[in-house]
Amino acid sequence: MRPLVPGLPDDAYEHDGQLTKRHVRAITLAALAPTPGALLWDVGAGSGSIAIEWLRAEPSARAVAVERDAVRAERARGNARMLGVAQLDVVTGSAPEALSELPGPDAIFIGGGLTTMGVIDRCWSSLRPGGRIVANAVTLEGERMLTGVRERCGGELARIEIAHAEPLGSFEAWRAQLPVVQWSAHKEPL
After folding, report:
1. From 20, 51, 138, 151, which residue has the greatest number of CB atoms within 10 Å?
2. Is the pTM above the cut of 0.85?
3. How large is the angle between the packed helices 119-126 and 140-153, nearest 10 degrees?
4. Rounded to an integer, what distance in angstroms lies between the CA atom of residue 48 and that of residue 180?
């Protein structure tokens, strides 16, 4: 299978609104940097879009999507089958508890459950040396968590703001998406 560039249209996914939007998804995948054979944890997977595009970008990579909501977990499985990456392993359970039995990841994306006590710390401690972690937040509470984890673990913070031209009467105007604060970091090799 030939690697595919991340950033599928949002309507390529079945979702209930819990979806990392197209442009932010492409930026997130660039920060995660899929590599051959690498294992991704997609924590708070929602529709599974990050894990799915990770697998599409690097055919030899592996991914586990962790989602607490059973309906969303099943939807992520369906999206994976529909988009050609049926090998996506979907775990239905809440983080951080659901992470305890998973193999050590080379990369982690935290999209949901960011403000749940212990999620960030469990993810960071589970990340293999040399691994990459990316977390996105749209709420002030999530942004505070990311500011704090950056102080403890290092890394970079970025604010991503996307707007699309949409009709406004007989004219067009920019309609902004919610801004996303993204924390990304590499765990130093031993």
Report:
1. 51
2. yes
3. 40
4. 18
